[in-house]
Specification:
- This protein is of the alpha+beta class.
- It is built from 5 helices and 7 strands.
- A 7-stranded antiparallel sheet has the order 1-2-3-7-6-5-4.
- β4 and β5 form a beta hairpin.
């Protein structure tokens, strides 16, 4: 009986070895499966993205061009503050125009008309980034100006110093039996396209304005209109920061500091 006990212990010990090996093998397989699962998860394609639009606001079109510039380009504007264009969403599309007749009596009269339009494009996964969409519209607006019906002496030229890209289209056009000089400047900044048209004519024997003067005026106004886009968005960002700071600040006359433990204890003792 005493000899059989050690023998039984050896048999049980040997039997346990395969069990341990099996358990170890299972643990190794589980670790490999987890590693494979992690690798598979990291290899999954990322969701498609699109570049955010640079500008989220449009300026007030009737304030986008300086009053001094308006007075110079349209001396006798009927509505000095401009006439806003119709739009169902001024945050995406807005415009303003000025026109006037400067009557010089027997020397004739000078007519001038100025119009500025803004179009803002948002980024869209299916349509592309706001900048891409604006670039496409920019090309369309240039082509539209070039296709003006009955235009004569039409010329197209790139313009530097106005936004990220700009093109000027100039031409002559006869209306109401008078010869008009036209200049359309199409410019883009980020996801916003500005289309500005300036024209003029001489009435009652007055000499028509020169093509170079009309183009110069159009370029000056277009440059101011493009600059107003960045200004409007900077102002909007400042307003948002101001609103955020006001919300976080404590109300006037009230302290945000909590009473100390000693102060609370004294108040309790007095009561």
């Amino acid at each position: 009986m005493h000899r059989s006990a050690p023998r039984l212990s050896r048999i049980l010990a040997c039997a346990a070895v395969p069990v341990m090996l099996v358990v170890a093998g299972c643990s190794s397989d589980d670790g490999k499966k987890n590693a494979d699962a992690s690798a598979s998860a990291s290899a999954k394609p990322k969701a498609p993205t699109v570049e955010p639009a640079k500008f989220s606001e449009l300026p007030d079109p009737c304030k986008a061009i300086a009053k001094k510039t308006i007075s110079s380009l349209v001396p006798k504007a009927k509505v000095k503050d401009g006439t806003p264009g119709e739009s169902s969403d001024v945050s995406a599309r807005a415009g303003c125009s000025w026109n006037g007749l400067d009557d010089n009596g027997v020397k004739g009269s000078q007519y001038r008309w100025l119009d500025v339009g803004f179009t803002r494009f948002v980024s869209d996964l299916s349509l592309g980034s706001g900048a891409k969409r604006a670039t496409e519209d920019y090309t369309k607006q240039v082509a539209k100006a070039q296709a003006t019906e009955d235009a004569k002496k039409l010329e197209t030229a790139a313009v530097s110093g106005i936004g990220e890209q700009a093109t000027a289209v100039t031409y002559d056009l006869t209306k109401t039996k008078e010869d008009f000089e036209y200049a359309t400047v199409v410019a883009r900044t980020g996801n916003v396209v500005v289309t500005l048209t300036y024209n003029g004519a001489g009435y009652a024997g007055a000499k028509a304005p020169s093509a170079s003067d009309i183009l110069k005026g159009a370029e000056k106004a277009a440059k101011e209109a493009i600059a107003s886009v960045a200004t409007a968005n900077a102002a909007a960002a400042t307003d948002e920061d101001s609103d955020s700071a006001t919300t976080k600040a404590p109300a006037p006359g009230k302290s945000s500091a909590k009473p100390s433990a000693k102060t609370s204890a004294k108040s309790s003792a007095k009561s």
